[in-house]
Amino acid sequence: MRVLPVGPRRERGFTLVEIAIVLVIIGLLLGGILKGQEMITQARIKNAVNDFNGITAAYFAYQDRYKAVAGDDPNGGSRWNAFGAKGGTGNGRIGGTYNMPVVSPLTLDPSKDEAHEALNFWWHMRLAGFVAGPTSGNGATTQPNNAVGGLIGVQTGGLGLPGLIVCSSGIPDKIAAAVDTQLDDQKSQSGTMRAMEQVSSADVATNSTQAAAASSFQETGAKQYVLCKAI
To answer: Parallel, antiparallel, or unpaired for β 193-197 and 224-230?
Structure first.
């Protein structure tokens, strides 16, 4: 019987070809992940742009049809009486803030107090068929959400912008800067679109006496902004 010599075992390592193949596979995986993330970001930018354009178009369509501002429309109550709708003061402005807490439609009376017209705006828009959503119950006056889960709302004035403005909160810095680039002048404190940094979920007031526009967009990957655009 042949006896094999006893000696140290030799470990077989990876060849350069095998290492190269692994690196190529890792590169393809990383490239796919990064490409997927960029596609998601681009989709959110497009959705945010569409939100501003869509609400602006709906506002003018309502005004053209009823010769009034949604939410402020004094004839809204009689027009949609079957739904329990309420009219507004008819003074041409929207009372309340874009992010104000939702209250039951049954407790609204914007015809006497314009403080809730920012909520009544969405009820009128839904009843008119310009915005999707429930036309009765608490959901009728709820502000819609944007593509990143923030609120979309309207109010009169804010961030130095006069008249009716549309605001969208919780927008990541990269998306906020891109949206402003597409719709305005790429600057956070000038033009028809302006932005303020949103430090916390509660830090979203945009009343012109309470908040000022940010001096510039900062893309750190951690900041969020409230974007507001004049209609």
So the answer is: antiparallel
**42-230: CATH number:** 3.30.1690
Identity of residue 176: A
Structure tokens at 144: 């819609």
Q: Sign of the CA dihedral 211, 171, 62, 104?
A: negative
Report the predicted TM-score, pTM, of the whole model to 2 decimal places: 0.81
Sites in the chain below the pLDDT cut of 50: 206-209
Beta strands in the chain (DSSP E): 152-158, 161-172, 193-197, 224-230
| Domain boundaries along the sequence of the chain | 42-230
Tell me what pLDDT residue 208 has: 43
Residue 93: exposed, middle, or buried by beta-carbon count in 10 A (0-12, 13-18, 19+)?
middle
Q: How far is Cα 87 from Cα 112, in angstroms, rounded to an integer?
A: 9
Which tokens belong to 48?
Answer: 């945010």
CA distance 193 to 213: 10
- CA 110-138-74 angle, to 5 degrees, is 25
